Amino acid sequence: MTLSPNLILEFKTLLGENNVLTEETDRLAYAYDAAVLKPVTPALVVMPTSEETLGRTIKLAYDNGLPITVRGSGTNLSGAVIPEPGDGLVILTNRLNKILEINQEDLYAVVEPGVLTANFANAVAATGLFYPPDPGSQAVSTLGGNVALNAGGLRGLKYGVTKDYLMGVEFFDYNGELVKTGSRTVKCVTGYNIGGLMISSEGTLGVFSKLIFKLVPPPKASQAMMAVYDTVQGASETVAAIIAAHILPCTLEFLDQKCIRVVEANSKIGLPTEAAAILLIEVDGSHQAGVDEDAAKVKSLCTKCGANDIRVAQNADEKNKIWEARRNALPSLARARPTTVLEDATVPRSKIPQMVSELNRIAEKYKLEMGTFGHAGDGNLHPTILCDKRDEEEYRRVEEAVDEIFDVALKLQGTLSGEHGIGIAKAKWMEKETNKATIEFSKNLRRALDPKYLFNAGKKIV
Amino acid sequence: MSNEYSPSSLTELAKMLMQLDDLLVSCMRCGFCQSVCPVYGATFREADVTRGKIALLEDLAHELTADAENVNERLNRCLLCGSCETNCPSGVNIMDIYLRARAIVAGYKGLGTIKKLVFRFILPKPGLFNFLVKISSVFQKPFLKRANQKVGTSTAAVLNPFLGRRHIPSLPGKTFASANGSVMEPGRGGPMVALFPGCVPDKVFPGLAEASLKILRHHGAGIFCPTDELVCCGIPVLASGDVAAFDELTKRNLEALKKRPFDYLVTPCATCASNIKENWHRFKDRFSAEHQSLIEKIHSQTMDLTAFLVKVLKVDFQPSQNEGKIVTYHDPCHLKKSLGVSAEPRAILKSLPGLSFKEMPMADSCCGFGGSFSLFHYDLSKQIGQSKRDNIVKVSPEVVATSCPACMMQLMDIMSQNNDQVEVKHVAELYADTLN
Asked: Which of A33, A73, A138 to mutate to test the interface with B (most CBs of B within 10 A)?
């Protein structure tokens, strides 16, 4: 650490002794996030406890030229909150965790950025409303992080992702000045849509202090089922057929054979281990009759596309059992080997069969253990490579395989990342998906809003 | 301290921690432990949560830090409640990591004098330990001031340097062991039970140990309880990384227990139950072949008293009218998270006449005691305890029940500190009161 003692003292005066972590032991615990990447130890970690001190923290850091990385719960999978090398400062938002308002009349809520997604969703549910985005890390992820990474989840197909719920943002610019954008109204065309720019900005444009989210009425009825297939093709055709029939299931999830087998081996819930793939489907709506009708249509489409078995949940218990298979997919895969590399390259829905066969080819080519599950309805699959990062030779094959996965996804007119973010992990691929002009435009944008390039400089656009 | 856990240099310490590498590497840094860790919930600091602690241990093992002192300090800011392990998506063997790491680091740093005196000299000697308790209970009187009549706590200004400003239960005149001596009863056709009272029930809450004895007698179980030979189950010394003391205590207990055959080992202490069942087994390689086979047997025979009543004795606990004093239940971590027992104590409570059961919010969140954690980190322990207390009073109970005497001490302190008029009882005490 080369920060001047005076500067550290200034942070301590501003934030309180306890909210400035200087000891190496404490700083080492912020060197990583959930991505499998090289850790970088920050020079200083600070925990502002109010909006006002957050703004002054940013000004103090920026004036002194400290590279700034804002961190919520550090659960992202792309290295977006790994600190910057040098005198990297980590600003923690987890003490800014108040739900400021849940407005039941106008269907919105105002929160601080450190509120946990699940706590928020529960508080909203307690008022009889619904906040749909449900990223896998919702029990720990912060809403600020969800906006910065545009977190998705299982309900994307019907309900959309974080960006579809953000109505307004207040954030600090590099001068520590508060910028306000969006509003509490359904319609708002005042000024630029800066909130849209903040979505998936990965901490490169400003630091959120308040977020306004849209809320919706919850569905009143639902029906879940599991469809079993001999071929991935059949599962994928079902997805296309359901959408073509203009039915939007709230969740439409896919598990390949490897996933089915590891889940079954771990949790013995009676999954068909000989199946090539299963789809887990849930339809919901405001009336049971309408839901039943949709469910019946979905069922017949599954059969038409080759499902050899369809298990419809008859009660809450059975429904829970169906979703247990999905919930256990990642944990079961993660237990198989020491290191879990979780990708999220996304393709147009119709390309899923090609994507799955390409993934299998890549796993075979690089002799890697891979299981694939994910949001089939969104074309957003999670090929998950199981390995041991300590085995350098094996890990090199993993990296090559990941590169090839991106290549394939782009060839299929897909995208590098559906919901995990670019961060450090995929920054080098940005130009390949877009073009040079896009990168230059993005850099110009960054320079305008962050002239010293101190906001998470090594992430997203480099 | 045995040599195998005594690294002498930092490089050697790193090398020994590398033995844990296979365990450490399975942490995928998802950070899900943040959602359940009581310490992190109080401090929001990553070094206080398991993901951070595992990262620090890896850093020490890979010599990326030389600050063993501070890593050890962070490592000990943990209640060993096991919430993280229960919720870990990658199934990391966190308790394994912590207990082994604490042993290795304690071997490097050495134990403090007081810990050494207590762990090596007092705990292994039941006679001496009881004598000290007796002396303390006589001498406590002039120093104690009644804090809360209903809860049954006192304050002891003279002990503040050791116990913080804790409100403590008054020590009884006689321990369970000195009142009963060793017990050996054939029973009336029920299974033979080795009753392991545990230090806290024996010395602080003898009424609880008596209640356990009464319940077992009532149901006709045979009882084998060699109070003059049984010693501490070993969890305090293991949590402090003193494996040598753990070896000694476990050996003494095994020697005492091998003298009579029994079908089950039963204890009213959730912490003793999980330690005897899980940790004796976890470290079984450290013992002789004879002791290992006894540990194997005990591993499958050990049960918490409430689970034993429901699962083995199959006592038919029919729900009562649910009228009368409101009682709520706190899940001890070592019972629910370590042993998966949570329905049984509730079934018992719901059956008791004169009580109306009401579930508190977050009944399974840790009370914040954590044994010696509460001595060394009393303010943190109190802060965690306060959230527990706030959840307890939400259901306005007259009684808060639990199944662990260690939790009882914490609950008594926090209820007393808040001047709440709520009794703290073990499920077994409430049940025993209804038996004639």
From this structure: A73
Judged by CB atoms within 8 Å, which residues 320-349 of A form the interface with B? 330-331, 334-335, 338-340
**How close does chain B come to A199, measured CA to CA in Å?**
22
* Domains and their CATH numbers in chain A: 5-92 (3.30.43.10), 99-214 (3.30.465.10), 221-411 (3.40.462.10)
Whether residue B70 lies within 8 A of chain A, CB to CB, comes out as: yes
pLDDT at B197: 96
Q: For residue B373, give how far its alpha carbon lies from the nearest alpha carbon of chain A (Å).
A: 20
Higher-pLDDT residue of B131 and A425 is A425
- Supply the pLDDT for residue B321: 82
What's the distance, CA A123 to chain centroid?
Answer: 21
Task: Give the pLDDT confidence score for residue A254 in this predicted structure.
Answer: 94
Residue A21 touches partner B, C-beta closer than 8 Å: yes
Is A331 in Cβ contact with B91 (below 8 Å)? Answer: yes
Tokens 């009759």, located at residue: A289
Residue B34 has, within 13 A of its CA and on its CB side, a CA count of 27
Q: Pick A338's closest partner by Cβ from B25, B56, B74.
A: B25
State whether residue A331 is helix, strand or coil.
Answer: helix
ipTM at complex level = 0.94
Is residue B389 within 8 Å of B420, Cβ to Cβ?
yes
Q: Which residues contact A252 (CB under 8 A, 6 or more apart)?
A: A157, A239, A242, A279, A280, A281, A282, A375, A376, A377
Average pLDDT, chain A: 95
Q: How many CA atoms lie within 13 A of B199 on its CB side?
A: 22
The strand order across the sheet containing A207-214 reads A99-103, A108-111, A207-214, A166-172, A178-182
Q: Is A188 near chain B, with CB under 8 Å?
A: no
- Rounded Cα distance between B216 and B210, Å, is 10
Cα separation, B217 vs B211, whole angstroms: 10
- Single-letter residue type at B156: A
